[in-house]
Amino acid sequence: MPTIAVYGAGSIGCYVGGRLVAAGSDVVFVGRQRVADEAHEHGLHLTDLDGADVRVGSVDYRTDPDAVVDASLVLVTVKSSGTAEAAATLAPLLRDDAIVVSLQNGLSNAVVLREKITRPVLTGMVPFNVVAQGAGRFHQGSEGGIEVEGSGLLSPYLGLFDAAGLPLTVRSDMDAVLWAKLLLNLNNPINALSGLPLKTELSQRSYRRCIAAAQREALAVGQRAGRTAARLTPLPPAWIPRLLTVPDVVFRNVASSMLEIDPLARSSMWEDLEAGRVTEVDWINGEVVRLGREYGVATPVNDRLVELIRDAERGGRRNWSGPELLDVLLRR
Prior knowledge:
Blueprint: E1 3-7, H1 11-22, E2 26-30, H2 33-42, E3 44-48, E4 53-56, E5 61-62, E6 73-76, H3 83-90, E7 99-102, H4 109-114, E8 121-125, E9 130-134, E10 137-140, E11 147-149, H5 155-163, E12 169-171, H6 174-185, H7 188-194, H8 198-202, H9 205-225, H10 240-244, H11 248-254, H12 268-275, H13 285-295, H14 300-313, H15 322-330
Parallel strand pairs: 1-2, 1-6, 2-5, 3-10, 6-7, 7-8, 11-12
Antiparallel strand pairs: 3-4, 8-11, 9-10
Helix pairs in contact: 7-12, 7-14, 9-13, 9-15, 13-14
């Protein structure tokens, strides 16, 4: 059986890797000492909003990157800020026949990995949210399946992911998939600044108007830059901002699927702020700001969200009410 390595195994990495282990795959996890200690003491307890309850008692979790040397498939799940360092670390360690898959937020992590790694690097996307609950517990709080760039090299692994309950959807349009995921992820800083679970936040029109304003800027940037978003939701991406701004009672009736989120689910950016970590805002809303500057499109809402998150990283204000945050974002 091929060995799979999860490099940078935090919430997403432990969840995906743990589900693979539970289904019989040979998986080695590589990450921080804190997570290694937790996994060794408690194992992994993996749950989801549909009632899945999976326990993995024995976990091969290491802190030395050399653990990847025997892996034929390496799943990279480090934060975007660590991608360049991960690429430099992995490049001399990988087997000649190794395949690397980036399962990260942002638009360009696979490109950054390819700058150092000469083995095949495929783009992937994890749409669902995973919350770390401590003591080895990781909870999938929203729906969706893993999508990955099409390649025949993945054929030996498709059955392993199927058995784990995480089937891979092979795509030929991953750039459009990543852009669509970025549009949805523009809510991450809003959720983090609200201090609320995603379901509670999305049930309030003022917060949804914040999301809509950020998405409209991104859609304008995408149109100028020639970026097309794949359809990851029942509605086309361009229609979502309008839907987000309808009154709460209308939203509950016509967009109930958007509220089908586990009450525990929160954004990874909220989790990073709680843990005192640097967030990925520069690779989410910051990407919109960067592209806006490149193509001459104003992005004041996303620019302000980046500023607010950076301030929160330094201990600044969090727990904004919806009206307060909307006022700050729309103030000219």
